[in-house]
Amino acid sequence: MADRASPPHPTRDPAEDFLFHLYRGGELLQDGRLEEARAELEQALVLSPADAKAQDLVGVVYFRLGLYPRAIGVFEKLVHDHPEAHEPRVNFALCLLKTGQPARARQELEKVVSAHAGHKRAWGYLGLAHQALGDADRALHAFTRGGHDAMARRVMDASGGTPTTERRPSFHEIDRSADLTPSSALPQSLSAGWDALLAAAEATPARAAQAATNTTNTKAHSDTPPRGPLSPTDLGRRHTLTFPAEGKIALHPGGVLLVAATSGFAVRPSLVRSMAYAGGLKHKPMMRRMRGKSLEEPLGGEGDALVELEGRGDLVLAPPADHELVSISLEEEPLYLREDLLGGFEGAMSYENGRMPAGEGEAVGMVQLRGPGTLVARLRAPLLALDVREGKSSALHAPSVLGWMGRVIPRALPPSEALGGARSFVVFSGEGTVLLHGR
């Protein structure tokens, strides 16, 4: 860019070479050229492995590429090496939030706000952590302390209350120009990394403030001795389902998902416990797609194929026996999921069908889904995630593979190459994360 100083040219001096790659990597990150930025920054780390600035920038790049386990490893090391610095800890917590670990994220963020009570971003992410853990009151407090009025209103709207605090700047108005590492001498490009991290945090599905409210109410009732039989009216009021804000999906403490659809929702009929649509229910069958073309095959397979419910409506979805329903929020990054595990997804999302080779001419039906939007998977616990790295292929038993994300490529492993001639193994190469069943 014309208004940006040119990085120093590489020299034979390792120290100057390090600065060149660090500076260049920061510029490429700011321009959104992530793979190029990654190459420069990883080269900088080769020249100076202990440099906190380079580590931090690499962590941001990994985060934006969807390599969350690697980003967590980077920021966790920074927190260990620089326990007094708050920004690496905030980064670490945000990665934990993105990967569905709100309890660990809350622990880290509480350390930050206890030492830096004015850290607005930390308060905002702490609110998200409380919300994911079902504590609406503490989420509201955190959003309010951080000045995230829009987020606070979302909690209040979902719980049927009204804000009592003075209006403050919205989450989008947070100052994002602060450095991300212990040093204030980092390249200005780090602000671009924060933009990506903040966007990802807001995309993380709030675990339904209503679920939090119901959990709180349930605990309160359990602590109070019963006063006698309930009337039918009281019984209904106590157990009435309250849906989240439009366009949101909430997990109820009872294990069901509450869906407030705005632009249609594709779902397996077997999961639906109730549905209420304004103006009448309109639906159409979903068909498989391949290379942009619709196939004359039902999406999800015969017998319980997915159906798209059109328009706005409220749905209650319940998992099959021995399963749980998991909602997964996607932005532009794709997720590959086994077709038989797909329970539903928002109508605005795009999808393509494909197959995972499983050996000897066999294949497993897969669906590639891309956001923005939220999908629902029906899974058996426990769910595990395996980090796949460049130059180190991973062989997995095909029936245990649930899906994957990132830049990974599967291929069937011939029995002649497998340990003891084992069959039905798949080799994943590239970089990303493979989801698998732990049993």
What does this structure look like?
The chain is of the alpha+beta class and 439 residues long. It has 3 domains: 196 residues, Tetratricopeptide repeat domain (Serine Threonine Protein Phosphatase 5, Tetratricopeptide repeat), CATH 1.25.40.10; 134 residues, Mitochondrial biogenesis AIM24 (Double-stranded beta-helix); 58 residues, no CATH class. The termini are far apart.
* Overall SS class: alpha+beta
State mean pLDDT (0 to 100 scale). 79
* First-last Cα distance: 52 Å
User: What's the CATH class of the largest domain, please?
Assistant: Mainly Alpha
Give the number of domains.
Answer: 3
**Strand proportion:** 25-35%
Keywords: Repeat, TPR repeat
TPR repeats: 52-85
Biased composition (Low complexity): 207-219
Region (Disordered): 158-183, 207-235
Task: Produce a short descriptive summary.
The chain is α+β, with helices and mostly antiparallel strands. The chain has helices spanning 14-30, 34-47, 52-64, 68-81, 87-98, 102-115, 120-132, 136-145, 149-159, 190-203, 209-223, 232-239, and strands at residues 249-251, 257-261, 265-267, 272-277, 283-285, 287-290, 293-298, 307-309, 313-317, 324-330, 335-338, 342-346, 350-359, 362-370, 373-379, 383-388, 394-397, 401-413, 425-437. 35% of the residues lie in helices and 26% in strands.
Which features characterize this protein?
439 residues; alpha+beta; Serine Threonine Protein Phosphatase 5, Tetratricopeptide repeat; Double-stranded beta-helix; 3 domains; 7-stranded antiparallel beta sheet; 6-stranded antiparallel beta sheet; 12 helices; 26% strand
